[in-house]
Structure formats: structure tokens, C-alpha cells
Design brief:
This protein is α/β, with parallel strands linked by helices. The chain has 2 domains: 164 residues, Lyase, Ornithine Decarboxylase, Chain A, domain 1, CATH 2.40.37.10; 278 residues, TIM Barrel (Alpha-Beta Barrel), CATH 3.20.20. Strands 4, 16, 17, 19, 20, 21, 22, 23 and 24 form a 9-stranded mixed beta sheet that branches. An 8-stranded parallel barrel has the order 5-6-7-8-9-11-12-15, surrounded by 6 helices. Helix 5 crosses helix 6. It is globular, with a radius of gyration of 24 Å. The N and C termini lie far apart (60 Å). 46% of the residues are buried.
Length: 467
Amino acid sequence: MTVTDLSHAPEALAHAPDGSVTFDGVGLAELAARHGTPTWAISASQLRLNYSTLHTALSARLSRPVIAYSMKANNNRAVVQTMAGLGAALDCSSEFELALAASAGVPAGKVIINGNGKSRAYLTAAIRMGVWQINVDSIAEVDRIRSIARSLGVTVPCAVRLKLSYARLLLSDPSYERTLRIAEGKFGSSTQSGDAEAVVRAIVAAEELEFVGLTHHAGFPGYRADFTAERQLMHQARCAEEIVEFAHLLRRRMGVVTPRLNLGGGLRSGRSVYLSTPGNGGDGEFRTLPTPDEYAEAIAAGLAGADWDPIVQFETGGFHVGNAVLLLAGVQDVKDVTRPRERRYVTLDCAMTMFTGRGLNRVGFPLLVVGHGPDAAPHPLPVELVGPTCAYDSIAEDISLPPVREGDLVALLNQGAYCEVLSTQFNGFPRPAVVHLDDGDVRLVRRRETLADIWARESAALDLWPG
């Protein structure tokens, strides 16, 4: 199997017959010579294309869509500033992300606050800044927000995060119940138990608070072995339907109109996602992703029962940045083995710990070897692409690659979503540099970590064995 099929590559990437590769107008060989490896490269052109494509699809079907870039997918300041410059709002899930949004010059009135069990420090910072909206997770959080708002003498706009029943969704897809236990359990207030309605009532009754909407985040289900685009679109439509129904219930029981509906994210950029079980390279395959138009159609269908005209918010991160970043790595060792089976192990100077999603959720990455053309003949041995850490560290398994040698360059594509933000320093390997590319322009936006950086947090050594 090969994961080098360029029909899955982003528009900003070009692979010439002579093997040269450019990303957003920058040659990858020249980039490695200038900045070293491993290095993450962000394509501003791809970010702009992804945003405009989604915004166009949503605007054709909804009267008032708002895209909020979800910073948790990739919190590089260059990405945040690019998305804000395109007109996106910002979705923050921590006090750090809120501070980063402010430092990037994003107006507080375009910031949405997310997260369960938010700390008083996080809430205080958000309320003091005057954010657009806080997505309220629980009745206890209502009390915390009220006390902070009262002390500051302000009114806080609040949307209520819902834990839906998923009744019709589960009728169509019973297997989704496993995802609910793993991924959804800690978030929001239940529409079935009455908790969500109680939270809305508490907000409406509080003079310090303003009820501005309902929110639910249908995340990306790509880590499931049975992922299909059709099933994901069904999930999105059913969730949107249920939010509209709950809004109707609030109006009947309380006379409350819901000004905003926040439908979260869950979409990924590109034509496909590569899924495989780590340790079992034989089951890897590209799965077709929904297009932005298909996604927008599913959302519009789910909202068809809304007899008012709400602002419809989207908290999309992975879609914008997913295929807009690649990781450029160097080959540092090639080893052929005969047992237990014939294999070629190619060790890169990056590690799976730099993109832990590979092991957590089965999502793999298309890749190519710089210097070999798209039609280069593969080496006869199946290749295991690995990192140098002292652990299971499989980057790709049972793939076909052209003959490579020490010093060659490999580009791992689609590295933008939940890769750098989840990276670790396992074995003390410094984290890569990050460069921002824009139509041939190159800027270093996050320097490479050094061994001194890794040591910097250590306090003075304890004298455990005094002489």
C-alpha cells in the first residue's frame, strides 16, 4: 500500500516529475536547507482557500452564518492572526488561548469561550475582556459567572451547551453510543433530564446574565473504524434538528427566543482522511470526506424546522488548518531486516509523539519523498516509517516508498489539526520549528526548541546523597 497518492494532497502542494516539491510556492529542499528538520510549514494560501470555500458553502444556504476558528486545533499565533484577518471569530477553550487571541489583536467581541469546569480565573479574564459569548456548561457555572459579573458590574452573554438525547441519531447509528460515553459525557447539560432547561431558566432570571443561544459540538468521528462521509453528515443533521426542537420547547414553556445556534465543528479539509489501526498496516485506507457543500446541505436540512432566523455559529478548527500544514522531516537511518518478516525500517528525525493523534485515533497522514517524482518506482521491500524514540513509534506501516537514504527529505501532509498542540518531549526530543509560507514568502513563526529549553524548567538539583 502507498500513502503517496497526490489526489489526496492539498491544493497548495505541487510535486514535479523531477521530484522537486513546493508548498505555497516554497521549495521544500530549500526550506530544509534554511530551517533544518523537522519543521512544520503552514500554508497561508491553503488557510485562505479552506475558509473561503466553507464560508461560501454556508452563506449559500444560511442567512447569517458565523465561522469561529477553534484554536484548540492549532494555536500558532500566525494561524490565529490569519483566520482573524479573514473575518473569523475565535473559539477559545482555555485561559491561555484567550490570552493568545488578545495578544494576536482579535477583538474581544469576536471571541467565544468554551470548556467544561471553567476556572474562576478563566471566566474572570473572559468577562473582564467583554467576550462575545460564554458557552455555559452547567448550573454551577451559572453561579460562578453571576458572582464574577456582579463584582465587575457587567452583563455577560451566555449560550447553553447541550447534552442531546441523540434519539434519532442512535436509531440510524447505534454504534455512536460508544462515542457518547468516551467523548461527550463530561460536556454540557442534558436536555432529557431537565438540566439544560434549568440552566436556561437560571440565566434568564439573572439580571447579570443574558441568554443568547444554544450550543452543541458534534466532533469529527474519523477515528471510528466504520467512518463514512454519509454517516458523518447524518450525525450533523440529526444534532441540528434536535437543537432546533429544544429551542422550540424553550419558546413554548418560557417564551424565550434563541438568537444564536452554535453547531460546533467536526469537518475536516481535503478530499479524504487516511485511517489505519496502529500495528496493523494492512487495514489502512483513504476514506472520502464530506465536501463543504455537502456539509452545508446537511446543516441546512437539520435547521429546516427553525421558524425564526438565528445567527448560526460554527466552531471549526480542523477544517481550516488540517491540510494547510505539513511536517518536513529528514531520514536519519535506513535498515533492512529479514525477521520476523522482510521489512525496510526508515527512521525519521521526527516522532509519533509530535502528532499523537496517529496513535490515539487511527488518523494517518499522506506522505511523499522529496527528490523522487510522483511515478518513481518503489523499493521492493514494504516500508515501516518510524521515529527514533524508545517506544512504539510508528509513523506509517506497510507502505511503498521509493529507495531512500540518509539525508533524504520526507513530507508528512495534513499535519495541521491536533498535531503540534498535542506534541510532547518524550525522550527529551526538542519540538520542531514552525514556518509560515505565503506565495513564496517564508517567515519563522515559532523557533525550534533546544535542549536548553527542555532543561529550563528544572529547579536546582537536590543533594540526595550528601558526602
